[in-house]
Amino acid sequence: MNRNYIFLTILMIVLAVGTLMLKPAKQLKQIEPETLLKEIVQPTRYISTDEVAKRLIQGDPSLLLVDVRSEAEFEKYSLPRSLNIPTEKLMADDNLSYFGVPGTKVVFVSNDDIKADQTWVLTKRLGFNSTYVMKGGLNCWMETIIDPVEPSPDAEETEFKTYSFRKGAQMYFTGAQVDDFNDSKVEVQVRRKEKTSVASGGC
Amino acid sequence: MHIHELNPWRTLIAVVIFVVILLAGFVTMTKPLLTYHLDMNESIQQLSDENAYFYPWELDGFIKKEAQNVVLFDIRDNFIFGQGHIPGAENISANDLTQEDNVERLEKLNEMGVTVVLYGENQLQANGPWMLFRQVGFDNVKILAGGYQYYAENKENLLAAKDNNSFKKGIPRYDFAEKAAPKDGAAVSTTAKKPVQVQRRQKSTVAAGGC
Amino acid sequence: MGPLIPNGIIGGGWDFVIAILLGVAFGFILEASGFSSSRNITGVFYGYNFVVLRVFFTALIVAMVGLMYFDYFGWLDLSKIFILPTYVTPMIFGGVVMGLGFILGGFCPGTSFTAIAIGKLDALLFTIGLYIGIFIFSLGYPLIEGFYNSGNLGNVTLTDVTGIPAAWFALAFTVVALAAFWGTMIIEKRVRKNMKEYKF
């Protein structure tokens, strides 16, 4: 019998057994810490309340709002069409299966942006893309969409445009009555702008 | 008789190449600078760890040089750091945090038991780096609650933070339900929340690679 | 690092160049292993020559174990490679058809081309038949479309289906392959003892 064959057989068995030692239990896929930090430093994950409002009004089907507050808080008030996954329960059940669906953008919402951002870091560590954070959170939502402040008369034209959009959004989300507008500049209308990338927002 | 029995060298050469490639793999494998020490659940738990935060009133002692074992790192840009910072803080821009010498420095501080406090313009800016360093095992890294903004606004009276929660993040500032209710009191949609129709990722689908 | 093209290390335009180089290498190995001889190929069905089984099993276990080490070294991300979708019954049926053609024709599609390269007339006729078969299949596709697409399990691996780590499958396949090497060697010897007319 050729001695070569015996050596080859032993070598192959040793190598195959070696594969068992390589990764004892490959659990969840994670990205490298250095890569994670590079992602963290980028501000592209923030999306403004205006952008969220616009997409909600347009009924964008690719948008998934994930509310990371506790269940009690969520019961009291939540944004329309949002889903409750408290950060503490991120790993529980099948909650992770909401992320990384091709063609959907997950936007995390919390009281302000801290908890949402923390959840974002956690999902990013698991390598999920197209997750975003609503900048300013619900506090900012109240200040900008639910109770927008009228800009001073000498403000920029764009500020009035934003204001008129917010007024319209306020009506959409609360059912508030239209105030009397004498100034044509602040005409309420919900415009459908052409789609822009979510990532371009900023509070 | 097979061809390789006539020429055993060929088999040997092929085997040697195979083994050499694998050995080269083991030798050149670089040990990553940072590895995760906390798993996902531990990482979530440590978010609610009171000891992972550095509170504004603790700054008071630091500025007066009473606190010995504390180092402050300002993770904002060098340019902004120059415009004003907490006295005694060092500047390491967030981009440079994982540079080898900085990580070594953090390791040294960790061994000496020195508390490292990260702060950014606001708490949000330092949030990610802070989480990352806690997750890779630096349990001496803390985050300044409220960030630089709170410090800058309340420089004179940092101790007051003990009695109010104005520095705190993550709490609602309004009663959302009341504020968002219709102003004229008409047609409040009190109906039970409809379950959201959401598409889930199917377990079986493998990440579609480059075909 | 890898896979090279999806990770953008080399441009997507290179895939044809790589395909040609790999094709040349594959053809060379087929010919070097003696696969352009119909006797070697069909020998596996008559029990006097198992070189086909040995070569393919060797390639399989070396590639399998090698890829797992490459994944561990960080040279190749196994989660990013493309996995062919699995169609259960069509694949079994296709395997049977292929095996029958194997015995009848004495070539598999790849080896028929290497045999043409060394000037075999039977291989030329085999490839002509191959193209006629492709033509008939294409014309008849609407008739068998339903069966062709049935039993789709998606892009699954054995690990996805069973939940057993890939390393255990690698070990099992390696042991089976090595056992087959030694087993077939014994079968070969016995069968050849009774053969007078065939010289190796």
Properties at a glance:
heterotrimer; A: 203 residues; alpha/beta; Oxidized Rhodanese, domain 1; elongated; disordered C terminus; C: 200 residues; mainly alpha; two-stranded antiparallel ribbon; 8 helices; globular
Question: Could you explain how this protein is built, in words?
Answer:
The complex is a heterotrimer of chains A (203), B (211) and C (200). Chain A has seven helices and five strands; from the N terminus they run ααβαβαββαβαα. With 203 residues, chain A is of the alpha/beta class. Chain A folds into two domains: 33-141, Oxidized Rhodanese, domain 1; 144-190, no CATH class. In chain A, strands 1-5-4-2-3 form a five-stranded parallel beta sheet. Chain A is elongated. With 211 residues, chain B is of the alpha/beta class. Chain B has a five-stranded parallel beta sheet. In chain B, strand 2, helix 5 (78-83) and strand 3 (90-91) form a beta-alpha-beta unit. Residues 185-192 and 203-211 of chain B have low confidence and may be disordered. Chain C is an all-alpha fold and 200 residues long. At the A-B interface, helix 1, helix 2, helix 5 and helix 6 of A face helix 2, helix 3, helix 7 and helix 9 of B.
Q: Assess the beta-strand content of chain C as a share of residues.
A: under 5%
Oligomer: heterotrimer
How far apart, in Å, are the first and last alpha carbons of chain A? 77 Å
Structural class of chain A: alpha/beta
Query: Helicity of chain C, in percent?
Result: 55-70%
Order of helices and strands of chain A: HHEHEHEEHEHH
**Global shape of chain A:** elongated
CATH topology of the largest domain in chain A, what is it called?
A: Oxidized Rhodanese, domain 1
**Total discrete domains of chain C:** 1
Q: Would you report the number of β strands of chain C?
A: 2
> What is the strand arrangement across the widest sheet of chain A?
1-5-4-2-3
Question: Number of helical segments of chain C?
Answer: 8
**Can you give the mean pLDDT of chain A?**
77
In which range does the helix fraction of chain A lie? 40-55%
Radius of gyration of chain A: 25 Å
